[in-house]
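Weekly structure sync - notes
Attendees: PM, LS, DV (DV joined late)
Agenda: review two folding runs queued last week.

Item 1: First target. Sequence and structure tokens pasted below for the record.
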Amino acid sequence: LYGQTIALIFNKRSTRTRVASETATKLLGGHPMFLGGQDIQLGVNETLADSAKVISSMADGFMARVGAHEEIEELAQHSRVPVVNALSDLYHPTQILADLLTLFEHYSGYLKGKKIAWVGDTNNISNELLVTLPRFGAEFAIASPKGYDKVDPRVWAKVEEAQTQSLVTLTNSPAEALKDADVVVTDTWISMGQEEEKAARLKAFSGYQITNEMVNEAGAKDSWVFLHCLPRKQEEVNDEVFYGDRSLVFPEAENRKWTILSVF
């Protein structure tokens, strides 16, 4: 990227994605240009299409962290340079790359036959894991409370396209998902934009906090490990797991940089 400018357009707050993107661009000899939601007209006084045309006429590429997935698709449609999805409501591609690298490092590049259990809200991260992990021959189980357990039809269509339904378990029982699990994963119960739902969500997810006792009683493998894309809140996973020997969360966070480096 020597001498090239990468526009980093973030409509939502970010720590890992922003730091990883800026440092990766710099390491490759490029110039990262951060544009926050309050800095430019994106989708406010200017259409996404017009913004994409203008930015791509001056920058050599850009990453965009948006709301609706349709926004990243529209930006890509009207851009003259490559566009990287830094997060949308449907997918989080750079996160799944870091998760995969972390798992490949831990399991020496072999995921076939492993079981990964997701305990928490269905969101863009669980969507990524759902469409990706079974393609490597891994089982993937999702446990979410009723009312928070819907899989987006666009995501399930990808599962059907890959014919990996037999490797997927959808349940409302954390214990069922955790049975024989090699990897335990959770994420925020309250995503950005859902703050008004906090009280209802905390009530609905009661009993979903990841603890050693919960996972072991459910019959996970003795060697189970833990992932979380961060930021983490105490109600999602307790300190004993999060900071314990089973936790891979900080190597997982660092791998955001190395995988974004490969994308660029």
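Item 2: Second target, run right after the first with the same settings.
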Amino acid sequence: MKGIDLNSSQVNVKVEDLVSIITPHYNNLTVLRDALDSVQNQTYSNYEHIIVDDDSLLEVKAELQKLIGNYPNIKLIFLDENRGAGHARNIGITAAQGRFIAFLDCDDMWEPAKLQIQIEYMIKNSVDLCYSEYHVMNSDGVVLNIRKIKSPLTYPGLLKTNSIGCLTAVYDTTRFGKVFMPTMRKRQDLGLWLKLAKLGAKIEGIHIPLARYRLAEHSLSSNKASAALFQWKLYRENEQLGIMKSLYYFGHYVFFALLKRV
């Protein structure tokens, strides 16, 4: 995938290939505008952007409603109970009308040609789930490094390490229909990738950074102990692996986590 122009406007895809972008939101308007701008600046314009507010404060909901008036193609859904990002994403998947479903958290951003490159690649290569490398930023937006990926991926490979950043993932509903995230507080995105892998999805990544992931000091993603606990629960409860298989894959998970060091 070397040599791709991130600002290219040429892509041979059908106008009916609508992309549904799903963004969960909870009391985080300060960075949401960056995410909205990055979607509006996409060179691929056939999208709907579904923002699911996970029961933010009343004043935040009012400001959110004002904010989205400045952006096209947005559907806003308000939930009356806070149940976490995974549940909010599933509500978004239910409401989605597009062939393709993409995910973008409210504190992350996309490069301008992100959708264009991925949709073209998926159609040309019959890929069911596509992802990419991405930049890792601190809370001030300063890029720290590039998160590299492994590709292609299989079910056993995903159990060893998750190379798919949720902010880069796009899946095609053509073969398997809408597939939902498991109802767990964390690792629900990996749970979705595993579901698709078990269905026989073709899973491939693009080796250039197409998005920007923002590290939040006190976010769920920055809590390593919590992440390890949920990884173990994913093996035992969600995937129903035995003790020995769980230990085998958990050992790989720890090894690759140490390599990432972020």
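Discussion on item 2: Residues 19-218 form a domain with the Spore Coat Polysaccharide Biosynthesis Protein SpsA; Chain A fold (CATH 3.90.550.10).
Action: LS to circulate a short write-up before next sync.
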